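Hi again,

Forgot to attach this to my earlier email, sorry! This is the prediction with NDP bound. I've pasted everything inline since the attachment limit keeps bouncing my files.
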Amino acid sequence: LESELAGEVAIVTGASSGIGEATAESLAARGASVVLAARRADELEAVAERITSEGGDALVTPTDVTEDDDIDALVAETVDEFGAIDILVNNAGVMLLERLDEAAREHLRQMIEVNLLGLMNLTHAALPIMQEQDTAHIVNVSSTAGRQAGAKSSGYNATKFGVNAFTEAVRQEVTTEGIRTTIIEPGAVDTELQEHIPDEEIKQQIEEGMLESMTPLESEDIARAIAYAVTQPQHVNVNEMLIRPTDQQ
Ligand code: NDP
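Structure tokens for the complex follow:
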């Protein structure tokens, strides 16, 4: 176990799979106590067991980030158990790609509620705790889709552009209080994200494209970027990281 983050407390949303799971493991391996938040409790328990078997410290807090009560409970349980929120990784997300003229409104709503409003509300709930501390760090997982819009991705693009704008605005409000903000913008990462795409044709295109035309990133590649940002000295604020597979155009 390394100790760069010893004594720090990190909440990771979407910790039940993919980037969130890898990030929770990587922060725990650096000594942070991690709070695992997502809907699937069984998956969170499995992640927590792995972390504790490696000598780390993990708390499972089943959370739906679209529910205000869950968000408040997540913050309250973290503070009860560990007394602080040093790192908040807002990573939970869904990517329901469709052309707008074929999109279900429910999918648009879900993307906004999980990727954007959930992230905003959890940041809002955690901020008063962070402001009582000397330092804290908010890491928001955006995407290349937060910088470049494209067909079949209007709803998803809207959420990730929103994440970038929200994060920069909050940065300006709290950076002089010792609260750092980092936007993480991954290109293609091999996770479960693509499996939930409702349009079968788009899903197949994305899955084939990822396997045939490039070596996609692994969740651990993004976890390493997050670890880099949160282990910098306090006077260094890594505001934004764009990370693509080398062979992704
Ligand atoms: P996964 O599908 O593996 O992970 C998504 C996570 O979000 C899961 O842990 C899921 O947990 C959680 N989640 C979904 N809905 C909710 C909800 N309502 N409340 C709480 N948690 C929720 O995909 P990734 O790891 O790839 O995705 C993580 C982030 O990375 C997302 O924000 C995504 O947009 C972003 N990203 C991914 C890229 C990629 O190519 N994979 C590229 C760029 C960005 P559960 O179902 O248990 O609730």
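DSSP finds seven helices and seven strands in the chain. Residues 13-14, 16-20, 38-40, 43, 63-66, 91-95, 114-115, 141, 143, 186, 188-189, 191-193, 219 surround NDP (CB under 6 Å).

That should be everything now.

G.
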